[in-house]
Design a protein that fits this description.
Lipopolysaccharide assembly protein B; Serine Threonine Protein Phosphatase 5, Tetratricopeptide repeat; 71% helix; CellSynth/LPSAsmb/PSIAsmb; TPR_rpt; TPR-like_helical_dom_sf; repeat; flat; mainly alpha
């Protein structure tokens, strides 16, 4: 069984067209020609129908009385019927031209776009067919036929996720139609997922007992694939659905896979992730908890359990989970990294430091581990150790600009302005509008007695925040250093004026007026 069948196997749509247009249906050449065309069309006498419809179109142009006037929608529908008459004779190129006339005459006619897609599909132009079906849905998202046809088109392209989505949409529009379920079954069967396929075939007969398969039946020769190939199909389909935002459908696919193979713990882990993303915490915890210690996803699952418990404020319980995991996996650095975070939350700072130290031993290439260790060293007052840890983190992640800022700030605390300026300059190359980094670099130049380089930086800060008092003070001092006393004194007077204003503000207001901190 293969999904790459020759055609889309979908049919053009007819319309209940001229209700309300009886005004031109009697006593005119147009009305007579159209009436004869409909009779011939319903009798499957398509050549005569085409001639009569064409006569009707000509009459609409030739006859000038009011009764012979037709709207664009009506003219577009006549083109659509001519296209259908050609299609039923397998003259798809001519049908395509007529459908194009229809959509050009009335671009809002969803059925004409759909029929154009059918013509493209019959001529093996699947990409153009998809475009036409999508256009039909733009004008009528409730058009069952367009959703079903898109499912078939994506099935032909082996795009399982989009096919599944449109077959599902078709089912929602017509709950008692067996055809979408049948083709979903064929899609599963083609990839060896026979249990899932049989469920679709059975459901198709349940909702539509008289359904007859349009091509081959589900009892034909089955595809033989290894269990791993079949499992990969489930994963691929779920990934496609998740990528397009259909998490609930992906969840059902994981559940079907787990029903077939309960030991497929990768699926259990991914299902837990979906549930956690939907904030269905208890269900997620249950799925993660079913993954046994010997499985490769065990540690990842335990880390997720800990993260959920930490989010719920259950820090002690989260730590206990990690501690028991660490006893089973004493060489997993991620476990110790997360233990360190929890110990910090529990205000056990020395224990957190030891956990981070163990983490960097096990994860020597992880910049985040070194960063957290450095942070913990600063909390405990070991600034020189923190500098060493952060230098290593920057070495491992040279593009971690926020880390470079923290490293530069630490250098300024130790009055190593030359090293700090190097880090701040690097940050500004990538974040040129970051005001606090600009201010810190200006401060470094001021302290290194390079006021000419500091002045434009402080001016840039004040353009963005004219009430940044520290920048005002340093800018005034720098202008005095370069000999421009008038500007220097002006900025210092402005600084004093702002300080006097701040003394009359509430405490919170004064902090904001000072420019704030990063």
């Amino acid at each position: 069984m293969t999904t790459n069948v020759d055609t889309l196997n979908v049919m053009p749509l007819d319309l209940d067209t001229f209700a309300g247009s009886e005004r031109f249906m009697a006593g005119t050449r147009l009305g007579a020609a159209f009436g004869r065309g409909i009779k011939a069309y319903l009798a499957a006498n398509y050549p005569d129908a085409i001639e009569h419809f064409k006569t009707a179109l000509i009459a609409a142009y030739v006859e000038g009385d009011e009764k012979s006037q037709i709207y664009d929608r009506e003219r577009a529908i006549i083109y659509l019927y001519i296209g259908n008459a050609c299609a039923f004779q397998d003259d798809w190129p001519t049908a395509q031209r007529e459908y194009l006339e229809s959509v050009q005459t009335d671009p809002q006619l969803a059925e004409a776009h759909y029929n154009l897609g059918v013509a493209f599909g019959a001529m093996r132009q699947i990409d153009r067919a998809i475009g036409a079906f999508k256009e039909a849905l733009e004008h009528n998202n409730g058009l069952y036929e367009a959703h079903f046809a898109l499912g078939r088109a994506y099935q032909m392209l082996d795009d399982a996720g989009r096919a599944y989505i449109h077959f599902t949409s078709a089912r929602e529009l017509r709950p008692y139609a067996g055809e979408p379920l049948y083709y979903m079954g064929l899609m599963h069967q083609a990839h060896g997922a026979h249990e899932l396929a049989q469920r679709c075939f059975a459901e198709a007969l349940r909702v539509e007992p008289t359904f007859i398969s349009p091509s081959v039946g589900p009892d034909e020769v089955l595809v033989s694939k290894s269990e791993q190939e079949v499992a990969n199909w489930y994963y691929r389909l779920s990934d496609d659905l998740k990528a397009q935002g259909y998490d609930e459908d992906a969840k059902r696919i994981y559940e079907a896979l787990l029903k077939w193979r309960p030991t497929e713990h990768r699926a259990r882990y991914l299902l837990g992730n979906l549930l956690a993303r939907a904030r269905r915490w208890e269900l997620a915890l249950q799925e993660y908890g079913r993954i046994p210690p010997q499985d490769r996803y065990y540690v990842d699952a335990r880390l997720r359990i800990s993260a959920i418990l930490r989010f719920q404020g259950k820090h002690r319980e989260a730590y206990n989970h990690l501690y028991s995991t660490a006893k089973l996996r004493p060489n997993d650095g991620q476990v110790f990294l997360q233990m360190g975070k929890l110990l910090y939350d529990l205000e056990k700072h020395h224990a957190a430091m030891r956990a981070f130290e163990r983490a960097v031993q096990l994860l020597p290439k992880d910049p985040n581990a070194y960063y957290l260790l450095g942070f913990m060293y600063t909390v405990l007052g070991h600034e020189s150790w923190a500098l060493a840890a952060w230098r290593k983190a920057v070495e491992l992640a040279p593009h971690a600009h926020s880390l470079r800022y923290d490293l530069g700030y630490m250098y300024t605390r130790r009055r190593r302005y030359d090293l700090a300026s190097r880090e701040f300059s690097h940050v500004l190359m990538h974040w040129p509008d970051d005001i606090e980094t600009t201010f810190m670099l200006g401060t470094c130049y001021k302290e290194m007695l390079e006021p000419a380089q500091a002045i434009p930086l402080f001016e840039k800060v004040l353009r963005r925040n004219p009430r940044h008092t520290q920048a005002l003070y340093y800018l005034g001092a720098c202008y005095l250093q370069v000999g421009n006393s008038s500007l220097g004194k002006a900025y210092l007077r402005r600084y004093e004026h702002l300080i006097n204003q701040q003394e009359q503000l509430p405490q919170k207001g004064r902090a904001m007026a000072r420019g704030g901190s990063r």
